[in-house]
Design brief:
Layout: E1 8-15, E2 20-26, E3 32-38, E4 43-49, H1 53-65, H2 70-80, E5 85-94, E6 98-106, E7 112-118, E8 124-127
Antiparallel strand pairs: 1-2, 1-5, 2-3, 3-4, 5-6, 6-7, 7-8
């Protein structure tokens, strides 16, 4: 997040077995930026995602409405799947205006688990 001051994490996606991560950030005005980050935390590329005003407004809305930060949501996911490794996690609205952090977790046994955390209350709404 130091690469884009004032931004909030919208999603992370593991690539190449966790050696490279794609990180999507929301800037203070709703502008999305995609970063490539290596496993040592070095940013190798930043590009602006060219979206219209409607998408910027949507992104700004979800980033402001979420009370649970990416770090807090990742900690919550790790507490319910302590042996797991998060391979993808994103913030988005679903159905009846539910705002959730949606995570894909790979357990030490190689089993995929989906975990959803309410981005307002911090409650785990799906674990399995």
């Amino acid at each position: 997040m130091d690469a884009v001051k004032g931004s909030k994490v919208l999603s992370v996606q593991s690539n190449n077995g966790g050696r490279l991560w794609e990180v999507q950030l929301a800037g203070p005005d709703g502008t999305e930026r995609l970063l490539e980050v290596d496993d040592l935390g070095r940013v190798s590329g930043v590009r602006v995602k060219d979206t219209g005003q409607g998408e910027k407004a949507r992104v700004l809305g979800i980033s402001k409405d979420a009370r649970l930060s990416f770090d807090d949501a990742a900690a919550k996911v790790s507490s319910v799947v302590p042996e797991g490794r998060i391979t993808h996690m994103s913030l988005d609205r679903y159905g009846d205006d539910a705002l959730v952090w949606d995570a894909d977790v790979l357990t030490s046994e190689g089993v995929w688990r989906g975990v959803k955390v309410d981005a307002r209350s911090g409650a785990v709404t799906k674990n399995g």
